[in-house]
Amino acid sequence: MVAAAALSRQTNGAAIAAERIDLAAGGVPLSSVPAADEAPSPTPSGAALGGSSDLSDLSDLAANDQSAAAVLADLEDFWSAHGVTGSARPAGGYVSMDSSVGSAGGSAGESALCIPDPGRIAGNAFYCPQGDGIVFDSSALVPVLLGDYGPAALATAFAHEFAHAVQARIGPTASDRQADPTRFPSILIEAQADCDAGAFLAWAVAGDASRVRVPPESLLRAVTPVLDFRDPVTISPSDPTAHGLGLDRLTFLLRGFRQGAAACHQLTADDLDLTLGRAGVAGDASTQPRFASTDAAVTAAGQSVAGFARESGLTTVGAPATPDPADLATAAPYGQFAAATAVALATGRATTGQDTGAACFAGAWVASVFGRVADGLGSWPGDADEALDLVRSRPNATFEQVAAYADGFHGGVGGCG
C-alpha cells in the first residue's frame, strides 16, 4: 500500500526540467481494468489525494500508464541487478485500474488480483500476494504523483510497492511472517520497502536507470510523498497497516539511499528506532495548544535550545537565538512546536554557519526533548514530524537538509558540521 494517510500538499518550487521519465526505451506490459475496449465515455474523476489533474480525456490515462510502465521497467532492471535471480517481474504482472469507473458504478465488481472493484483502490497502489502482482490507480494516484510531486515521486511510490514483490522472492516472505510475526512485524516489512525505494532512487540519481531521470536537485520532491503519506499519530506500531511517521519513513529511505538494497534486507525490527508510538509522549494528539500563544512556545524553546547548545559544548552564550521571521511564518500552519523548532534552526545556523548544519542541530534538539518533557516541548506524538515539516517546507529547502535533520535526531550534534 502506498499510504496510510495523505496530507496532499504541493511541493516547493517549479518542476525541474531534467527530472523526467523517458518513454522511448519502452515499458512493461500492463493489463487494464476496465479493458480498453470496455472503457466508458470519459468523465472527470477528481483526484483522491487532492490533485488537480484534468482526467476528462482518456488519452491522459494512457499517458499515465506509459509513465507507470516505464518506471516499472526500470525497477525490473534494478532488481535484476540487485538480488533477484531469474525474472524480476511478478508472476501476476501489473494492472492499471481506473478507480473513477468503479466509484461511478460502471464496472462495479470487476476485479484484478486482490482488488475486487476499481473503486476500492482509489488513490492508491498495492502489491497483492494473492496472484503476485501490482495494481495501481491510473486515474487518482498516478496523475497526482506526476502533477503535484513530479516524475521522481512516481518512481519512489512504485519502488515501494515493487519492494514487496521482491520480499516475496528473497524474504521475508508471507510464510516467514506467519511463522515468526514477532521477528517480522508489518512495520518492518514497510520499512524495508521504504529502504528499497531509497536504494532505487540512489541508482537513478547515479544515472544508471534507462528511463527515470532524477537529478540531485529533485530528491526532496522525490521523497515528499513518503513524508506526506505517513501514519496518523494515533496508530500503533503493531497495527498491521503501520508504515511509520514521516521521520520514520525518511530514516528508512535514507538507509537504502546511502547503503544500498542489501542493507535494507538486513534491517530488523530492533533497528527501527521508531518515533511512531515513542514512549513518553501523549497517547494521542491534543487539539488544544499547549502554550497560551506561539510567542510563549518560542520563549520556552529559547531557554531549552540555549541550554541544549551549552550542554553540547557548542556555545557558552546564555541568551537564546532570535528565530528568523521567515521561519516563523513557514511554521505557522504546522503548530507551536514547528515555531519552537525555528529557534533551534537559528541557533544551529549561528553555531554551524550553514543551513544543513542548522537542520542537523535542530534534529538533535528535537530528540533531546521528544518524549522527555511532560506537557511541554516534545510531549506530543507528532512533534518530531512537525519540526520536519518546517525544515522541508522552508524556501529553497534541500534533500541534504531534511537528511541532516534525521541524522541529528538519531545521532546527536556530534555529526553536525
Element pattern in H and E: EEHEHEEHHHHEHHHHHHHHH
| Uncertain residue ranges | 3-16, 39-58, 103-107
- Please give the order of strands in the largest beta sheet: 2-3-5-4
Structural class: mainly alpha
- Please indicate the percent range of residues in DSSP E strands (runs of 2 or more): 5-15%
**How many distinct beta strands?**
6
Cα separation of the termini: 37 Å
Write down the overall mean pLDDT: 87
Q: List the total number of helices.
A: 15
Q: What is the helical fraction, as a range of percent?
A: 40-55%
Biggest β-sheet description: 4 strands, mixed
Domain unit count: 2
Q: What's the Cα radius of gyration?
A: 22 Å
Overview of this structure, please?
The protein has 417 residues and is mainly α. It has 2 domains: 20-271, no CATH class; 294-415. Helices cover 46% and strands 5% of the residues. The chain has helices at 58-81, 99-104, 142-149, 151-170, 174-179, 186-205, 219-228, 246-259, 261-264, 294-311, 325-331, 336-352, 355-369, 383-393, 399-411, and strands spanning 20-21, 31-33, 93-97, 125-128, 133-137, 212-213. Helix 4 (151-170) crosses helix 7, helix 8 (246-259) packs across helix 15 (399-411) and helix 12 (336-352) crosses helix 13 (355-369).
Task: Give the SSE layout.
Layout: E1 20-21, E2 31-33, H1 58-81, E3 93-97, H2 99-104, E4 125-128, E5 133-137, H3 142-149, H4 151-170, H5 174-179, H6 186-205, E6 212-213, H7 219-228, H8 246-259, H9 261-264, H10 294-311, H11 325-331, H12 336-352, H13 355-369, H14 383-393, H15 399-411
Parallel strand pairs: 2-3, 3-5
Antiparallel strand pairs: 1-6, 4-5
Helix pairs in contact: 1-4, 3-4, 4-6, 4-7, 6-8, 7-8, 8-15, 10-12, 11-12, 12-13, 12-14, 13-14, 13-15
